Amino acid sequence: MRRAVCPGSFDPIHNGHLDVIGRASRLYDVVHVAVMINRSKQGLFTVEERIEMIREATADYGNVEVESFHGLLVDFCKERDIPAIVKGLRAVSDFDYELQMAQMNMGLSGVETLFVPTIPTYSFLSSSLVKEVAAWGGDVAHLLPEHVHAALIERLRAK
Ligand code: PNS
Hints:
- There is one protein chain.
- This protein is an alpha/beta fold.
- It has one domain: Rossmann fold (3-Layer(aba) Sandwich).
- It has helices at 15-27, 47-58, 73-80, 92-109, 127-135, 146-158; strands spanning 3-8, 30-36, 64-69, 84-89, 112-117.
- It has a five-stranded parallel β-sheet, sandwiched between helices.
- The longest helix is centred in the middle third of the chain and has 18 residues, at 92-109.
- The chain is globular.
- The N and C termini lie far apart (44 Å).
- The mean pLDDT is 97.
- Bound molecules: 4'-phosphopantetheine.
- Residues 7-9, 36, 72-73, 101, 104-105 line the site of 4'-phosphopantetheine (PNS).
């Protein structure tokens, strides 16, 4: 069974994430989506809400498992016998930090990192930007799955 992990904060998941997860799901038998818990970062959505949104968004892929993890990504991988991390690279500005993490993860446990180039349609996309634009009333409907967009609008309205 060939396994890979797509890690992230996913607060919330957007179409750029989904593109990368979908492409990974065509290359691997099982793709684990790991919602990494960062206690020092207050999210707009709870980890449980993020997991539910990702499950709904990836249900049709058929081989995606979604869970949260508190700790090092390499420990998530070790516990599940996952040899590869798959990440999207949006632009050259992503590269330095992603390279550092890839090299650290390789040094810590030998886990490989594979980068997939984000499709140009989503090369500018990030969860933070989506939240900021939506908070000011900008239209982000085309950047998110429908249920995520609805949840975002609802959450921002309640704030
Ligand atoms: O969506 P994000 O916030 O850009 O994802 C970053 C994430 C969660 C993938 C990264 O911070 C991570 O791997 N965190 C887990 C803790 C860890 O392993 N840190 C060392 C990385 S070398």
